[in-house]
Amino acid sequence: MPQQRKKKRTQKQTVPGDLQPKLPKSFVIRSGAVGRSVCHLVKDVRRIMEPNTAIKLRERRGNKLKDFANMAGPLGVSHIMIFSRTESHLNMRLARFPRGPTLSFHVNEYSLMRDIAATHSKPKSPGTEFSTPPLVVLNNFGSDERHVKLVSTMFQHMFPPINVQTMKLADARRVVLFNRDPETGSIDLRHFIVTVRVTGVSKTIKTLLQANIPDLKNYDDISDYILRGGAGSDSEAEDAPDSTMSLPQNYVGRNNRKSEQRAIRLVEIGPRLNLSLVKIQADLCAGEVLYHSEVKKTPEEAKAIAKRKAQQAASKADRKRQQESNVAKKKDQKKALVTLQRERQREKFGAKSKNSDDEGDEDEDDDDDDEEDINMEEDSDYDME
């Protein structure tokens, strides 16, 4: 008899939800009347945050920050970016759910994705690059100032962390650059896609290698097309040696196999923003101001503010305890009232049942009297006879 085969699981075991690494997710929204251009900017910033963002999120006029905070927990959303406009500035707030902190920026300048595409002679049309999160590059954030460290930490934690030892090269499709100007403190945000090109060959050979069939009707032989003369364009220039590398893994695209020499280029697709940090708050769009670029407080003023906030917190705690005691007292009163009503109903029902029993006894007595009267009449008849 053949040995019975043991069934083995062929599917990969999933890690329980508590053990799975939680990827940062985000909301990118607008608040108030911001104009059509800023609405397009919000959509473009969502493209940067893909695929871990709500790309089709629709805000309503009645939505409040509390509504998004309530949704963030069940959906696993960790960050929110809010664009709003005042008479003088376009503002952007970057906050972390559920308890902050919140970074407030002025958007000094911005360019949409369509504006960046208009500057290229041959704009790159993005395809599947948005299926993977971008790589984050921070430049000039090495200052020892606390607010600079906090800003760099917030920018890093907006995107999933990468492990160089285990990540796939094909996942490196986009780059987000945060460049800080040490003199002014302004931050430039730029968005690129990674392109891989064949190196060491002419433009005509690159066209053939990319499976693009050229127009050969004016050539007698394909060699005439390959060996044609003329000055080359800027795109045909040799790539710099420091931009070429040997691919350590297979990459996306035709003939981009491991160990092949390729030139790596970054093509900007936008949007582009220039930000200035205004203030940092401890909580979710509220709380103590940890840093302010325009308002500076003396130690005495900071101490007085801290004392006032402590008094407000104590007063709030007292009011909360008083409200809880009032609610508990009302619940006890309501419970006592319900108990009293039930007792009254029980007494009323008992009295009705007693009255019905007494009436039943009286009816039985009447029936007995009627029977005695009948018997007496019969006896009298017999006597007369």
From TrEMBL:
Protein name according to UniProt: Brix domain-containing protein
Domain of life: Eukaryota
Native species: Synchytrium microbalum
GO cellular component: preribosome, large subunit precursor
SUPFAM superfamilies for the chain: Class II aaRS ABD-related
Biased composition (Acidic residues): 358-385
Biased composition (Polar residues): 243-253
Residue segments, region Disordered: 1-22, 232-258, 302-385
Pfam families registered for this protein in UniProt: Brix (PF04427)
